[in-house]
Design a protein that fits this description.
Elements: H1 5-18, E1 27-35, E2 38-41, E3 45-48, E4 51-53, H2 55-60, H3 70-79, E5 97-104, E6 110-113, H4 116-132, E7 141-153, E8 156-167, E9 171-174, H5 180-189, E10 196-202, E11 205-211, E12 220-221, H6 233-256, E13 258-259, E14 264-265, E15 287-292, E16 296-301, E17 324-331, H7 336-340, H8 343-358, H9 361-368, E18 371-376, H10 383-386, H11 395-398, H12 401-404, E19 408-413, E20 423-425, E21 430-439, H13 442-445, H14 454-470, H15 489-493, H16 508-515, H17 522-537, E22 544-550, E23 553-559
Parallel strand pairs: 11-12, 17-21
Antiparallel strand pairs: 1-2, 1-3, 1-5, 3-4, 5-6, 7-8, 7-10, 8-9, 10-11, 13-15, 14-15, 15-16, 16-17, 18-19, 19-21, 20-21, 22-23
Protein name: Pentapeptide repeat-containing protein
Pfam family, one: Pentapeptide_4
Organism: Flavobacterium album
């Protein structure tokens, strides 16, 4: 292998760095697998009389002179990261490449990019080591035999394996090859054309066959009798049960409508990476099927009800995986490409990951009938649909901004479908077919889905189902809630402003008529400001408001320990238009129900104040600090909010018609259901 000058210099520096830590007469190795996503491996090891010794052995056998210093050497190598990176020597190599570094005291380090002969020799060694790895009774190795089938699954290579190992004390079978990464490297080194690979190691005799064959490397054409191998009875029973579960499920899916022959393969990884229905597989087990009914498009999981491959998960072969499959149902017929790259497909995967992590999701649904899950947009891992497909469908492609901003939305589980039954009998048990319907944040903020009382949440879910039935959606979802040709800029700049406004519990007409009955004089207001200053000096701004309603009127209570002064509360009174609060310190004041049309609040500090159910038409708040100010259900028509600080400000169902928000940090406030007609920004 040609080595660049830059790489040669790096190898010389690494050699010099490790030299003091190497023992005379010993040979140390490191091996790395280069993949599409990075690399794996790298722990140092040494070989003695055909057996590999690792830092783990050295740590747990401190008296073994053979491996003394191995753990310390491994720590030194790990400590090089950031300064002397071994990955810099192989990062340019193609995916599915294996590299070995060798370190010997007094010699330059060596780098070997393994070719086919090296990889096959490594496979022979790995098969034997893997067979003996977890034995405790020192059995004799008799043989290991495997047949592998290679299937391209979207961007990934799936490897389906049957393997049988015979030791002097037992015979066992499984579905895992000796080393998946090594097998992928062999396939890559052979041109990536393997369809099947067979091996048998018996004693020291190693037989390799493949389809197609590669006689130049001693790999003959696969013989028909080796397309299947003898399997241990327990494994064969589980394998046959798996095949029957898949057959029954596939036949059922075809009864729902027209099932497309090509599935959707998900890329599972990141902060949730549970393969279906368990642990880790050596192929892409996360598969979705697309089915067209007469009036909808179903996207359904195909594998969560597979039989567990591990006896640890299901010792007595009683369960069809997690006991459920999950699905989305789109309105009308949607193309394969649209659903493959759709945000809701990623959401579907996220729900399945939560179900696997839960441990008994089937029982949860059976006990509660329905469930809701609250998500933040960054809880849905788009990686599973993006992969190498370049999908760009994040949440903003599906929901309007106000339906999820600033972050929250939900998923309703197990809403009934007219096209999909609630249950399906498979070979080991009856499984659930659970519908997933995303819903907007208004159900989270306006209702009691966040209650700890399950009965309260159950009532809300019943109300939700009735609502979706009344509007004709039922369990189905549209391809998008975003209307074409509609400018969504307001929804992005003024969070939640595109949410339908809720009704008000307050009679604002009555409040305005009461406020008009009393106009405060300048002297009275100035006296109130002096008392408020004493209130603040006494620590009055450390309290909080409790907002109540009685007889359609607001009744607010400010909870504080201070006894000094008096809080500024001009509520349900009128402030003259010619009065100025410019630069005033009005923190924690209460303007609820107040008429202050055209009043000057420029550069005032109004942090934490209540301006609910008030009338501030044409008022001037330019430059004011409105941090955590609540304007809910007020009228600020034509008001000036230029360059104001709006951190945490609340304008829910506020009439902001014609208001000027130029230069204000509106995205840090909420405008749920507010009237934003003709606003300036």
């Amino acid at each position: 292998m040609d080595i660049s000058t830059e790489h040669l210099e790096l190898m010389q520096r690494i050699t010099a760095h490790l030299e003091p830590h190497l023992k005379e007469g010993r040979t140390y190795h490191q091996e790395f697998y280069k993949s599409r996503y990075g690399s794996s491996g790298g722990s140092v090891f040494q070989v003695h009389e055909g057996k590999s010794y690792t830092p783990w052995h050295a740590e747990h056998n401190p008296e073994d002179t053979l491996t003394q210093g191995l753990k310390e050497l491994d720590d030194v190598i790990r400590g090089m990261r950031g300064n002397l990176n071994l990955s810099d020597l192989y990062y340019h190599l193609p995916a599915d490449t294996k590299v070995r570094f060798t370190h010997v005291k007094g010699q330059p380090m060596q780098m070997l990019v393994m070719d086919v002969p090296h990889l096959l020799e490594d496979l022979k060694k790995t098969i034997r080591e893997d067979a003996m790895r977890y034995t405790t009774d020192n059995p004799e190795f008799i043989s290991a035999e495997a047949i592998m089938r290679f299937v391209q699954q979207a961007d990934e290579l799936g490897i389906y394996t049957d393997e049988t190992t015979v030791l002097s004390t037992r015979t066992s079978s499984g579905s895992s090859p000796a080393d998946t990464n090594l097998i992928k490297c062999i396939n890559k080194a052979l041109g990536g054309h393997l369809e099947k690979l067979y091996y048998k190691l018996e004693g020291d005799t190693f037989v390799l066959q493949s389809k197609p064959g590669f006689p130049e490397f001693g790999i003959t054409e696969l013989e028909p009798e080796n397309e299947t191998i003898d399997l241990a009875p327990e494994y064969k029973e589980r394998k046959d049960a798996q095949a029957e579960a898949i057959r029954l499920r596939t036949e059922f899916y075809k009864t729902l409508g027209t099932m497309l022959p090509v599935p959707i393969y998900l890329n599972v990884g990141g902060f949730r990476s549970h393969s279906w229905p368990e642990g880790s597989h050596y192929h892409t087990s996360e598969v979705l099927r697309v089915i067209y009914t007469k009036d909808s498009t179903i996207v359904i999981t195909d594998g969560l009800s597979d039989v567990y491959t591990s006896e640890r998960s299901d010792a007595n072969l009683e369960y069809n995986g997690v006991g459920a499959e999950f699905y989305l149902e789109f309105e009308g017929h949607v193309t394969f490409e649209e659903v493959r790259n759709h945000f809701c497909t990623a959401l579907l995967n996220s729900v399945t990951q939560i179900a696997i992590e839960h441990g008994d999701f089937k029982a949860l649904i059976e006990n509660n009938e329905h469930a809701t899950i609250e998500f933040r947009q960054d809880n849905v891992e788009l990686w599973c649909i993006k992969g190498m497909n370049g999908a760009s469908n994040d949440i903003s492609i599906f929901f309007r901004h106000g339906q999820y901003a600033p972050d929250d939305f939900g998923a309703f589980l197990n809403m009934p479908s007219k096209n999909v039954p609630a249950k399906l009998q498979l070979n080991l048990e009856e499984i659930l077919l659970i519908n997933i319907k995303p819903f907007s944040n208004e159900w989270l903020t306006s209702y009691k889905l966040r209650s700890e009382d399950e009965e309260v949440k159950k009532e809300v879910r019943e109300e939700m189902m009735a609502h979706f039935e009344a509007i004709g959606e039922d369990n189905k979802i549209p391809l998008t809630y975003v209307e074409e040709g509609v400018d969504n800029t307001l929804g992005e700049l003024f969070p939640l402003s595109d949410v339908e406004p809720r009704g008000s519990e307050i009679n604002n007409e009555l409040i305005e008529s009461l406020a008009k009955n009393e106009e405060l004089s300048h002297d009275t207001i100035n006296e109130m400001l002096e008392q408020h200053s004493e209130f603040l000096d006494g620590g009055g701004d450390d309290g909080h408001f409790e907002q109540l309603y009685t007889a359609s009127l607001p009744l607010n209570i400010y909870m504080t320990q201070t006894k000094a002064g008096k809080q500024f509360k001009p509520g349900m009174k009128t402030i003259p238009k010619d009065f100025s609060f410019e630069d005033a310190d009005l923190r924690s004041s209460e303007f609820t129900g107040c008429i202050a049309d055209g009043v000057d609040f420029r550069d005032a500090d109004l942090t934490g104040s209540l301006f609910t159910n008030g009338f501030f038409r044409g008022a001037n708040f330019e430059g004011a600090d409105l941090t955590s100010v609540d304007f809910t259900d007020s009228d600020v028509t034509g008001a000036n909010f230029r360059n104001t600080v709006l951190d945490g400000a609340d304008f829910e169902i506020t009439n902001c018609t014609g208001a000027d928000f130029t230069g204000a940090n509106t995205t840090d406030a909420t405008f749920k259901g507010a009237n934003m007609k003709d606003v300036k920004y």
